[in-house]
Amino acid sequence: MSALIRTAAGSGPDRAGALAGVAPALKSLRRATSLPRLFGLATHALCDDMGFGRAALFSVRDHALVAESVYARGTPDERGRLLERLAAAPAPLRPSLHESEALRRGTTVLVEDAAGDARALAALPGTRSYVTAPVVCEAQAVALVQADHGPDGRSVTELERRALWAFAEGLGCALERCVLEERLRRHSDQVLALMRSTEASVEELISPVLALPSPMPLRPRGEAGDLPERERLEMLTRREREVLTMLAEGETNARIANRLVVTEDTVKTHVKHILRKLGVKNRSQAVCRYFQIRGSIGEPRPAASAVGR
Questions:
Q1: What's the CATH class of domain 2-177?
Q2: C-alpha span between 156 and 165 (Å, rounded)
C-alpha cells in the first residue's frame, strides 16, 4: 500500500491527497472488539477518513448480499432508515453482476454509470457511480464493501477505486484478527466451564465414603424415591450436607462459596446434586425437606438467628 501511495504521489498532489485517508481509516479499525463493531468502524472510516458520501458493508450469505453496516453523511435517522431498507431485502448475486465478479476474482470494480449498466447491482439506492470491493478472510471472499458520493454527489474516480482496494485489503486482515479473537474467547469459555465441572467432580470424589445401612434396597442411581428420611440424608456426600446446612441457614451461593473456598459454579453443582438426591425441584423445597428429615430423626433445627443471614 505504501508503494501505491508513493507512485500516486509522483503523479500529482491530488493523487497523494486522495490516498492519504487510507492509513487513518485502517488505524481506526484497531478499536474493534467484535465483528459488528468492526463493520461499523469500517463504514464510518470510508466516509469520515476517505471522503465517500455513503458506504455499506455486506456479508455474503446463500448467494446474496446481506447488509451488516451502513454509514452516510446526514442525520442518524437517515442512516437508520437506509440500513433498515438494505437489511430488509438481501440482494441476490447473479453470475453476470459486477459484484459477483468482484467476489469471484478478488478485484475492486468501479461502476461509472450505475443506472445504465445492466451488470450493476447498485445496492445503495439512487447511486450514480460507485465502487465495490471484496473483503477476503482466510483466503475466502466473505463480505463486500460498496461506496459512493450519494444520489446527488460527484462520480467516483479511478483513484478512489484504488484507495478502496487498499482499504479492503487491510479490512480483511482486521476481520481475520476479530474472527480469531472470537474463537479464542469461545474456546476459553469452554475450557473454564470444563474446569469448573471437573472441580465439582473432584470435590465429590474426595468426600469420605459413607457407610450405607444394611439391608439397602437396590434403586436406580440418584433416585430418592420413597426412601426413609435418614437414608435420604445419607445419600448426600459430606460436602453436599455442608452446602444443604448453609442453604437452611439462608446463605446465598456466593456466601457459601466464600465459606467453603470454592467457586460459585461449584456450589451450584452441589445444589443440583442435592435437589436430585432429595427428590425436590428447588432450593426452598430442599430446605423444607432438610427440616423434615432433621425433625424425623430427632435432630434440633438450626438456631433461628442463623436463618436468613
A1: alpha beta
A2: 13
